[in-house]
Design a protein that fits this description.
- There is one protein chain.
- The chain is an alpha/beta fold.
- The protein has a single domain (51-361, 381-404), classed as TIM Barrel (Alpha-Beta Barrel).
- The chain has twelve helices and 20 strands.
- It has helices spanning 70-79, 98-107, 125-134, 154-167, 193-199, 202-223, 241-249, 258-262, 282-293, 309-312, 329-338, 344-359; strands spanning 4-12, 16-25, 28-33, 41-50, 52-57, 82-87, 114-120, 137-141, 174-179, 231-235, 253-256, 299-300, 374-377, 382-384, 403-405, 409-412, 415-419, 422-423, 432-434, 443-445.
- The strands form four sheets. Strands 3-2-1-4-13-16-17-18 form an eight-stranded mixed β-sheet. Strands 5-6-7-8-9-10-11-12 form an eight-stranded parallel β-sheet.
- It is globular.
Amino acid sequence: MNDLVVEGKIFLWSRGIVEGCVGIKNGRIAEIKKVARGEEKIRCRGVILPGGVDIHVHMREPGMTHKEDFYTGTVAAACGGTTAVVDMPNTFPPTDDLDSLREKKRLAEKSAVDYGIMVALTEKLGSQVRAAEEATGIKWYYGTTTGAVGWGDAKKGVSVLAYIAGQSDRCQGKLLTVHAEKGDGTGDNARSLEEHSRMRSVEREVEAVEAIGNTVKKAGEETKRDVNEWFVFNIAHVSSPMTVETARKHGFRTEVTPHHLFLDTGMALGPLGKVNPPLRSKAERMGLWKKLVSGEVDVVASDHAPHTFEEKNIDFPEAPAGLPGVETRMPLIFYEVKRGNLDLEMFVGLVSRNPAKMLGVPKGEIAIGLDADLAVFSFQNVSRVMGEKLHSKCGWTPFEGFNAIFPDTVICRGGVVVRDGEFVGERGWGKYLGGNKADGVGEREH
């Protein structure tokens, strides 16, 4: 008998919505049938979707836990329908070797949903290989941003990646996420969103992707092997349709954020809207939407990067770059599904299926044998985003007043973490997502 049965309208990939039951046993999906028996049954009023996978978050631990920590950040993720997150390495100290990775893994054991951890690309070659083996993926800061010094040497970066891939089969096939902006941050003294966008221009973003792509191509020619076979190259937080086109030309995956889809330089956000890469014009934003709905974008990730309201609400040049968004990622985009602006299958691909496949973890779809990660969204459950009702420690949102649809029920590996829109999960329920990605299936450490 199943431990839990979830009954209602189920979204199945390539089949659409069907009436039935999802049977869950030992944290995995055991059966999908018209009728199923279980020790507990939940009847859902909305549509049952796979839980979300957010491959780009900053949980601010260690070193900045006044802004966020792994528990508060993953509670926020759960309340937005996300059941797995991947944390970035620009903490204090940075996650750039085996010791710092293992310390962050220890700190992350408090997480309420499953979590992965990225290690920063460095020249610490011996330790880099061992850290990359154990990490969920690698983050390459090509450009300088808040808390991270850019390493904008494409030839050197690709040579280190080649070394890592050549030293360990366990590193091959792992996610490589690139912060692609040309420049070291010198002169970042903009006084407005418009000026910030000009200083950190679209051209700087495109040039960075072009430089990496050309270097990857040359390395492939020299080694007679496609370098994209070594890692899953992902260009993070793409802010322009031109960057999408450039990344696709070089065979890279692309990730966009809700803030680049919903916010622009014409809005009265001031320093609260400061982020790297910057918000763009409304025309650029709408162009990015067109790329999304045409299927040219692979993933929507939050780039959840919280700072306190007091830290952000100061003079623009001094304000740190970064916005919270892990809890609002899926609700904002799902509202666009309700409005008819995005297909439901495309939504599931962008927020769940594609990121899970890029990570090589058994998530992202409702299918027998995969993790029982589910999120139930009701099309009728429209509400206004209010920072005071969100769960991030930072306590504010740039999407204040936006329409969104938050999930009624969220299940992570068979455990109910959100019920009737309220968090009911356990501290420490989350498990680490890491290990060998070479075979395309992620190991989960218990």
